[in-house]
């Protein structure tokens, strides 16, 4: 897909300096620009690259005044960074602008859907599924029975949505993620074996949620596992049965949350965090990467470590920990001197 400088300037309301018919078909960082690519200059630290880049078109701030000849056609805008972001969003919308039902695919009895459905090949829609408007379901997806999906959702290739799941509007789920699989519920028996406890709840995902690739959100044993409005989950995250994640909380990759834990709104949780079950994490909590949380946390706390404790105390303790070999030697020297 090609765009001219004239078309791009029209989208961004920018001023063209150079060839309005210059064409681009790809995006590039300014230091890696090649023929046919579009780039931008926002950070003054990269200004030298504007004179050497081989990009065909560059978006720059209106305040930029070249000091040397520039090969690229320039598009001047109020804010180059925001304009480039706007262009990325526009490009992404065009790229995702698919519609129609590809074959082979299966739409079971009782399914209803709104306008502009895209269903990729080799996908399966179970019985009595309700799908809103402008939903994009890419190839090799599975949607189980009685699932409800709101408007403007995107499920990339290989997503699995188990039965009874309820999904709001503007939800994006990336490839390989599984929503609604059984929670990890097993009851120990007298003979030492474990008997599976039926998991008959569901998962509820509210509006404006994004879930990365290869994440897993388990259905509740009873009731619902709930992902509230605006939550953002990174790749490879485990959300166990009956967990609730509050609105606009963000969680980085490889974090695991055990069953029935409640996480508040506007929390920030780093990568590789482990959180035990049946505790409550307050609103606005920050948990640093690789922490192990074994108890409830109050609103606004910032913690680190395993077991996790106050971030300030952790930082002070870590200084002493790094110096521990030196401290031990000093103690041993004191003991020797005392013995003498």
TrEMBL record:
<dbReference type="InterPro" id="IPR007691">
    <property type="entry name" value="LpxD"/>
</dbReference>
<feature type="domain" description="UDP-3-O-[3-hydroxymyristoyl] glucosamine N-acyltransferase non-repeat region">
    <location>
        <begin position="22"/>
        <end position="89"/>
    </location>
</feature>
<dbReference type="GO" id="GO:0103118">
    <property type="term" value="F:UDP-3-O-[(3R)-3-hydroxyacyl]-glucosamine N-acyltransferase activity"/>
</dbReference>
<feature type="active site" description="Proton acceptor">
    <location>
        <position position="241"/>
    </location>
</feature>
<dbReference type="InterPro" id="IPR011004">
    <property type="entry name" value="Trimer_LpxA-like_sf"/>
</dbReference>
<keyword id="KW-0441">Lipid A biosynthesis</keyword>
<keyword id="KW-0443">Lipid metabolism</keyword>
<dbReference type="Pfam" id="PF00132">
    <property type="entry name" value="Hexapep"/>
</dbReference>
<keyword id="KW-0808">Transferase</keyword>
<dbReference type="Pfam" id="PF04613">
    <property type="entry name" value="LpxD"/>
</dbReference>
<comment type="function">
    <text>Catalyzes the N-acylation of UDP-3-O-acylglucosamine using 3-hydroxyacyl-ACP as the acyl donor. Is involved in the biosynthesis of lipid A, a phosphorylated glycolipid that anchors the lipopolysaccharide to the outer membrane of the cell.</text>
</comment>
<comment type="subunit">
    <text>Homotrimer.</text>
</comment>
<keyword id="KW-0012">Acyltransferase</keyword>
<dbReference type="InterPro" id="IPR001451">
    <property type="entry name" value="Hexapep"/>
</dbReference>
<comment type="pathway">
    <text>Bacterial outer membrane biogenesis; LPS lipid A biosynthesis.</text>
</comment>
<dbReference type="InterPro" id="IPR020573">
    <property type="entry name" value="UDP_GlcNAc_AcTrfase_non-rep"/>
</dbReference>
<keyword id="KW-0677">Repeat</keyword>
<protein>
    <recommendedName>
        <fullName>UDP-3-O-acylglucosamine N-acyltransferase</fullName>
        <ecNumber>2.3.1.191</ecNumber>
    </recommendedName>
</protein>
<comment type="similarity">
    <text>Belongs to the transferase hexapeptide repeat family. LpxD subfamily.</text>
</comment>
<keyword id="KW-0444">Lipid biosynthesis</keyword>
